[in-house]
Design goal:
Helices cover 48% and strands 7% of the residues. It has 24 helices and eleven strands. It has helices at residues 15-30, 33-40, 100-103, 115-122, 127-137, 160-167, 197-204, 207-215, 230-251, 273-280, 283-286, 330-343, 353-362, 379-391, 399-421, 428-443, 451-456, 461-489, 501-524, 536-551, 571-587, 592-611, 625-637, 644-650; strands at residues 83-85, 93-95, 142-146, 152-156, 173-175, 194-196, 222-227, 261-265, 289-294, 314-318, 324-327. The strands form three sheets. A seven-stranded mixed β-sheet has the order 3-4-7-8-9-10-11, sandwiched between helices. A hairpin with a 5-residue loop joins strand 3 (142-146) and strand 4 (152-156). Helix 14 crosses helix 15, helix 18 packs across helix 20 (536-551) and helix 21 packs parallel to helix 23 (625-637). The protein is elongated and about 95 Å long.
Length: 658
């Protein structure tokens, strides 16, 4: 099957996939020709090309499940351009840019149900042998090439002499502290880690030219690959490019960035548990690594589970007989590597993956004979047994070890189901729906002194019910942003703004709209000094927003219109404390001088916010807590009191504030 993109179609997929493919084809051909021409950018008068319909699934990319439609399937119909399918209506397609690696361009609503299916998929695609071919044909330490299908491949390799030195021992883990070449990997949870000395030594020697080459491919599809210790270079290069893309996306609205995919062949484990953890904290990093390991390769299995080394990414294990399977559970990966290490105890030969991959491709459509007792196993245990058999290590794994693998995979499946069930609530766009309701609530409470006072002191049963709804939405938003900020705070500040621009603006809107309700709830319970117990996630959102303003080219621009939302989300806390100070004067006459000073400072704060147009006109609504405070403060000071703020309020200049 020719797809014109160098990636073969997948045979033997589930019946569900084939049924959906046929349904999509029929549905598309039922539409008028003009509609089909609009969607594909072609007309039926185009030169006839080979009709194509292919399904490409790539779970190891950890993107959404995908469907690629590279044209029509009707007789004599020319293939159209790739189209992107709407998540909820697969037929509502619009043209999009070709995605990286497999040119995956359409969203689908199902995933691989097991690592066995994932292995079968990976064994059927051309991009893996293309990557190894690029390594075999290179003449330097690293080289950029383009495949016939149009994929850009950055390949690395290491000299046989250095590999022999590695296999002889003496090269082990070194701490990342004091190693600027890998400092971009650190996080707050994992500020330091250990990485193999060979990886650091080799990567340091590549210099700035490689870094410049990486940065040129922020907006293009790129596969980074390496064999043996060259895999170390591929891994670090991929991580550095991900870091550069993080900075790019954080500091701009650049939506054209494309994250690289890393494919290594026989690369030994590179770092310890802290290294693994630092990568696991970045979801967009950890899902981009595929490690191809042959049973007969002594380099790949050089480090055992008895060492501090810990793997990450997806592992595709294969044998010269054509067996292959994938593992994603890190403990299972170590177990298989241990079995392979025993197999290669006396083998120090550098392995060639060209032959093994040829055997794998021949076995794509053939699984082998079933064992007599296979059908007595539950489906999960049978799948694990099949995986170990495909990797050629079943006889080296005990039943107890298989049982432990089964337990861990059961927990992992349960955890994935829970995560997938809550995906919709964790998206920024879903929080906007909640904020839209909040905005409606704000606008409809102007006659009650504004939404702050309406929420703090509901006047009737209808308002109480509305407050209950708002309280639920407030809880949803708080839970989402607390988790989001906590995750983003783990990334070091040196990586630029912690949140991307649109996320930062969304977080700022949330803070300014929702924190006043937290303040209302706080003071309704009779508490004092909100600022001392303010949530850390609000503090971080405010800090990141202030940093973004300083770096913004528009930060020096003067505002001439009032803010729709009061910029200081703690404004009402200051109002409440001013109320408390005013009433304390009656009972604490000895400390009245200090209290008076606080009130003067509050005056100056409010006047400064007004002059900067940083407060919303809603603070001047009749019946608001601020206006009630002013009435009491005016009575306390008397009509003869004069200050800039008093003059502003007495002359009712706020009526023209907008």
């Amino acid at each position: 099957m020719n797809t014109n993109c160098g990636v073969p179609g997948i045979r033997g997929l589930t019946g569900k996939a084939n049924v959906m493919a046929d349904a999509l084809s029929r549905k598309e051909h039922e539409k008028p020709k003009t509609v089909r021409a609009l969607r594909t950018g072609r007309s039926d008068r185009d030169p006839v090309q080979t009709p194509v319909r292919s399904w490409y699934l790539a779970r190891f990319l950890k993107t959404r499940p995908v469907l690629a439609v590279y044209g029509r399937t009707g007789p004599g119909e020319p293939p159209g351009e790739p189209v992107k399918c709407n998540k909820y209506d697969i037929h509502a397609a619009i043209p999009v840019t070709i995605r990286p690696l497999l040119k995956l361009v359409c969203l689908l609503t199902f995933r691989f149900s097991s690592e066995v299916e994932l292995g079968k998929f990976l064994g059927s695609i051309d991009v893996i042998p293309d990557a190894y071919r690029a390594i075999s044909e290179m003449n330097s330490v690293y080289e950029l090439s383009t495949t016939r299908s149009g994929n850009n491949i950055l390949a690395f390799k290491c000299s046989s002499d250095y590999t022999a030195r590695f296999l002889s021992g003496g090269i082990d883990l070194v701490s990342s502290e004091g190693l600027p070449v890998v400092d971009f990997i650190s996080t707050k949870l994992n500020p330091s880690f250990s990485v193999n000395e060979a990886a650091v030594e080799l990567f340091q020697h590549l210099g700035e030219d490689l870094k410049e080459l990486e940065n040129k491919h922020k907006n293009t599809s790129l596969i980074i690959t390496g064999s043996g210790l060259g895999g170390y270079l591929a891994i670090l290069s991929t991580l550095r490019l991900h870091h550069a893309i993080d900075v790019e996306e954080s500091n701009s609205f650049n939506k054209k960035t494309k994250r690289p995919i890393c494919i290594t062949f026989g690369s030994p484990v590179i770092g310890d548990a802290s290294f693994q953890g630092a990568i696991a904290e970045r979801p967009q990093w950890k899902s981009r690594f595929l490690n191809v390991v042959a049973k007969e390769d002594p380099v790949a299995s050089f480090f055992s589970s008895n060492t501090p080394y810990r793997p990450f990414g997806t592992y595709l294990f294969c044998t010269e007989s054509g067996g292959y399977t994938t593992f994603e559970d890190q403990d299972s990966i170590l177990l298989v590597l241990d079995a392979m290490r025993l197999w290669n105890a006396c083998n120090l030969q550098i392995y060639d993956y060209a032959n093994v991959w040829s055997s794998v491709r021949k076995k794509v459509l053939y699984r082998g004979l079933s064992e007599p007792n296979e059908f007595n196993l539950n489906s999960l245990r049978a799948g694990i047994t099949l995986q170990l058999k495909e990797a050629g290590v079943l006889n080296d794994i005990t039943d107890d070890e298989i049982g432990e693998m089964e337990k861990k995979q059961t927990k992992m499946i349960t955890r994935k189901k829970m995560v997938n069930a809550n995906v919709a609530t964790k998206k920024l766009n879903d929080t906007k729906i909640c904020l839209t309701y909040m905005e409606w609530y704000m606008k409809t409470r102007k006659t009650q002194g504004g939404y702050y006072d309406a929420y703090k002191n509901p006047t009737n049963d209808i308002e109480k019910r509305s407050c209950q709804e708002v309280r639920k939405i407030r809880g949803t938003l708080n839970a989402f942003w607390k988790k989001t900020v906590e995750e983003k705070d783990q990334i070091p500040q040196k990586e630029g703004t912690n949140l991307r621009k649109r996320w930062l603006y969304g977080g700022t809107t949330y803070r300014r709209m929702v924190e006043p309700l937290d303040i209302a709830e706080y003071y309704r319970m009779g508490k004092h000094n909100y600022m001392e117990s303010r949530s850390d996630h609000y503090k971080l959102l405010e800090k990141w927003s202030d940093e973004d303003k300083k770096n913004s080219k528009l930060s020096d621009g003067k505002r001439y219109r009032a803010a729709s939302l009061t910029e200081d989300s703690c404004f009402w806390a200051h109002v409440e404390e001013a109320f408390i100070s005013l009433r304390d004067i009656t009972y604490e006459w000895k400390a009245s001088v200090n209290i008076e000073q606080k009130l003067v400072e509050f005056e100056a704060y409010v006047m400064r916010e007004i002059n900067n147009y940083s407060v919303s006109p809603d603070i001047f609504l009749e019946g608001s807590s601020f206006m009630k405070w002013w009435d009491e403060y005016k009575a306390h000071k008397g009509n003869v009191y004069a200050s800039e703020f008093a003059q502003y309020m007495n002359s009712k200049m706020y009526e023209s504030y907008q």
